[in-house]
Every structure is written in structure tokens, then in C-alpha cells.
From TrEMBL:
Gene3D superfamilies: NAD(P)-binding Rossmann-like Domain. SUPFAM superfamilies: Formate/glycerate dehydrogenase catalytic domain-like, NAD(P)-binding Rossmann-fold domains. This is Alanine dehydrogenase. Transmembrane segments: none annotated. It comes from Pontibacillus halophilus JSM 076056 = DSM 19796. NAD(+) binds at residues 133, 197, 202, 219, 238-239, 266-269, 279, 298-301. Residues 4-136 form the Alanine dehydrogenase/pyridine nucleotide transhydrogenase N-terminal domain. Keywords: NAD, Nucleotide-binding, Oxidoreductase.
Length: 372
């Protein structure tokens, strides 16, 4: 199969969908890889390294997009929809529940859209989301700590406090991969951390992992309201796979938060869990203020640490890309149920229920379509 790797064009998105090592893996299996010029530069991989690994380096995005399968990092932007064609296999983050126009474009052009974030193992884990959630979770505590500084717009709190001065309070809503990694870094910085989750079993696991160094709370509106009112930093880390994020924090709750406190809504890529995170921000202009609270809502946080993120991402995506390329997407999906769950659009149909529900579109069962 011929596999194209375009350069990412989102604001400050320096990741790339494949490393030279990944190119070699695909080449050894008999495939061809076409990389857009400078696609890897932001992650520290030169055109020469891709050529030495056996890739063809091309001058334009159109050439990279003109292959049988395209691997990317971020969901395509409007400028890229024009490259879609019937039968293209697009393997990337898609976050379609929060992207009505992209969903429409994929359906109209009959693209086979396979979303990294909905590839799901039988134990419910999301293997192609996990490494980026680890990165974003760790970053969220660092970023929150920075924006609490007075010069960055925050109230001037040091998360770890000092002897004689109280530590900062951090509430993390959602105790999965992002939440756990946020809590690790925040408690490492010395903050007083509370994790809120809906799943009692997950709360038990968190209690086993962290012991008495963090607090756990059952997710309900009252607990959330009380926890965030006294928090300096609140991190949004809830996910219902494939679905639009639930708005768990109302505007009224935000209006009762302390002046100069900070919200980092990591779940913004699925629409965000705060009523007040009503827009996506960029690395260039990452925050805005509402009700005296600083809001950070960047949807590609790992793009800021591209070297770590690209290697972490491609470690997990390349084995799946290899299956798609070796067998074709139909057989690969039939043989591998977790990969099958990644298929969100095919031949003009939406095959991920939560995406169809988000946009009131008809849903088609992928298994029925694959057996036709
Ligand atoms: N902004 C960015 O750059 C990035 C964003 N993300 C996003 O971060 C979000 C979280 O991802 P993961 O941690 O990997 O997901 P996960 O599936 O590991 O964790 C989600 C957690 O939310 C909990 N949850 C569900 N409903 C809840 C509720 N009503 N109240 C409290 N907790 C609830 C679940 O029990 C689970 O523990 C996703 O939207 C993901 O796409 C991930 C990486 C980068
Ligand atoms: C998960 C995602 O969308 C990202 O890493 O940018």
C-alpha cells in the first residue's frame, strides 16, 4: 500500500504521524511511504533521515494526500477537506463528536475515517489515545502552575506553598489517564489534589495508587461545585469515548470560583466539560478570562512537546497502520475488533454511535457493512 504523511498545519502543531523508524517498519513489510517535505522538522526528524529510511519526500501536501492511506496526527482542518476522495483511508485523531463540518465532509466524500481515539481494547482502554493523554495530563498540571503566576494572569499562588503558607488546591475532574497523570505531577509539585470520578471502581484504584497523598470524590454536581469553589486550579479530564464531553461544570459554578483561579480543560478536544469553555484556544493565544477565571482550552496540547509526543504516538500507531496496510482495512477490521471500533465513517455512513447521536445522523453498524 502507498501511505502518505502530510505536514501538520494546525497552530503550533509540531508532531508528525511517523518517525523514520516507522517508515522502515512499513517498508520492510513491502509498503511505500510518501512524506511531505519538512513534515518531521518540528519533531526533530529531517527530510534526509526520512529518505535514508526509504521514504519518498515530496514537495506538496497534495502529493502526500494523494496516497491510498493517509496517516496524520490532528483532525483535518477545512483547508485540507479538498484533498479527501472516495475510498481514501484516513488514520488520525478525528474527534468527530465535536466536529460537525468534518463529519459532513468525510461522509460526503466517502472517506474511510479511522479515529485513533476510538480504537478500543476489550478492557475499555484506548491504546492510541493513552500516550497523548499521558502527555496532556502531565502538561496540564505544569501549565496550570504557570498560569497561576501573577504575571501570567493568575492569582499569584505557588502550588506547593512553602512552610507556613498553605499549598495550592487542585481539583481534577475525571480520573482516567489524563486525570491520573495530572494528579501525579500536581501532587509532585506539592499541591493538595482531589480527583473526582463517576466510577467507584476507578476511585478505589486511584486510592490504591496514591494512598493518602490525594483525595478522591464521587462525581456529582454538589461535590463538583464544592470542590472547585475552593480550588486554585481545576483540570477537566472526563471522557465518554467518541461522544461529546458532558458539561459537568456550569457557568454558575465557574462564577463562584476564586478570582484569578485557573481552568485547564483538557477534554476540550471532545467539546470540553465546562459551560464556559465555549471555544478552542491555540498555543499562540492559549487563555481567555471569564468570571475572573483564566481558561486554557488548547486541543492539541502534546503539540508543544513534539519530540516526546511524536515518538510516544508512533510507538502505538505504527503496529495498527501495518495491519491496515498488510490486510486492507476490511480484513484488518474483521480480524481486530479494537481496530474495527476505530472506524467512524465509511462509504458515506457514520459507524460510531456516539458520533451519529451527536449530530443527529443515521448510524450504520460497521459489522453489517463489512460483511456485505
Ligand atoms: N487537549 C488535548 O491536547 C488532549 C486532550 N485529551 C482528551 O482528554 C480527555 C480525557 O482522556 P483520557 O484521560 O485518556 O480518558 P479516560 O477514558 O482514560 O478517562 C476518562 C475518565 O472520565 C471518567 N468519567 C466519565 N464520566 C464522568 C463524570 N460524569 N464525572 C467524572 N468522571 C467521569 C471516567 O470514569 C474515566 O475515568 C479526552 O477527551 C481526550 O481526548 C487527550 C490528549 C490530549
Ligand atoms: C488526543 C489529541 O487530539 C491530541 O493529542 O492532540
Amino acid at each position: 500500500m502507498r501511505i502518505g504523511i502530510p505536514k501538520e498545519i494546525k497552530n503550533n502543531e509540531n508532531r508528525v504521524a511517523i518517525t523514520p523508524a516507522g517508515v522502515m517498519t512499513l517498508l520492510h513489510a513491502g509498503h511505500e511511504v510518501v512524506v511531505e517535505q519538512d513534515a518531521g522538522i518540528g519533531s526533530g526528524f529531517t527530510n534526509e533521515e526520512y529518505q535514508e529510511a526509504g521514504a519518498q519526500v515530496v514537495a506538496t501536501a497534495r502529493e502526500a494526500w494523494g496516497q491510498e492511506m493517509v496517516m496524520k496526527v490532528k483532525e483535518p482542518l477545512k483547508e485540507e477537506y479538498d484533498y479527501f476522495y472516495e475510498g481514501l483511508i484516513l488514520f488520525t485523531y478525528l474527534h468527530l463528536a465535536a466536529e460537525p463540518e468534518l463529519t459532513k465532509a468525510l461522509i460526503e466524500r466517502k472517506v474511510i475515517g479511522i479515529a485513533y481515539e476510538t480504537v478500543q481494547s476489550s478492557n475499555g482502554s484506548l491504546p492510541l489515545l493513552t500516550p497523548m493523554s499521558e502527555v496532556a495530563g502531565r502538561m496540564s498540571a505544569q501549565i496550570g502552575a504557570q498560569f497561576l503566576e501573577k504575571s501570567r494572569g493568575g492569582m499569584g499562588i505557588l502550588l506547593g506553598g512553602i512552610p507556613g503558607v498553605r499549598r495550592g488546591k487542585v481539583t481534577v475532574i475525571g480520573g482516567g489517564v489524563v486525570g491520573t497523570n495530572a494528579a501525579k505531577i500536581a501532587s509532585g509539585l506539592g499541591a493538595d489534589v482531589t480527583i473526582v470520578d463517576l466510577n467507584p471502581e476507578r476511585l478505589r484504584q486511584l486510592d490504591d495508587i496514591f494512598g493518602s497523598s490525594i483525595n478522591t470524590l464521587m462525581s456529582n454536581p454538589l461535590n463538583i461545585q464544592e470542590a472547585i469553589q475552593e480550588s486554585d486550579l481545576v483540570i477537566g479530564a472526563v471522557l465518554i469515548p467518541g461522544a461529546k464531553a458532558p458539561k459537568l461544570v456550569t457557568e454558575e459554578m465557574v462564577s463562584n470560583m476564586m478570582e484569578g483561579s485557573v481552568i485547564v480543560d483538557v477534554a476540550i478536544d471532545q467539546g470540553g466539560i465546562f459551560e464556559t469553555t465555549d471555544r478552542i484556544t491555540t498555543h499562540d493565544n492559549p487563555t481567555y478570562e471569564k468570571h475572573g477565571v483564566l481558561h486554557y482550552a488548547v486541543a492539541n496540547m502534546p503539540g508543544a512537546v513534539p519530540r516526546t509526543s511524536t515518538i510516544g504516538l508512533t510507538n502505538v500507531t505504527v503496529p495498527y497502520a501495518l495491519q491496515l496496510a498488510n490486510k486492507g482495512y476490511q480484513q484488518a477490521a474483521k480480524d481486530n475488533e479494537p481496530l474495527c471500533k476505530g472506524i467512524n465513517t465509511i462509504n458515506g455512513y457514520v459507524t460510531y454511535k456516539a458520533v451519529a447521536e451527536s449530530h443527529q445522523l443515521d448510524y450504520a453498524d460497521i459489522h453489517d457493512l463489512l460483511s456485505q
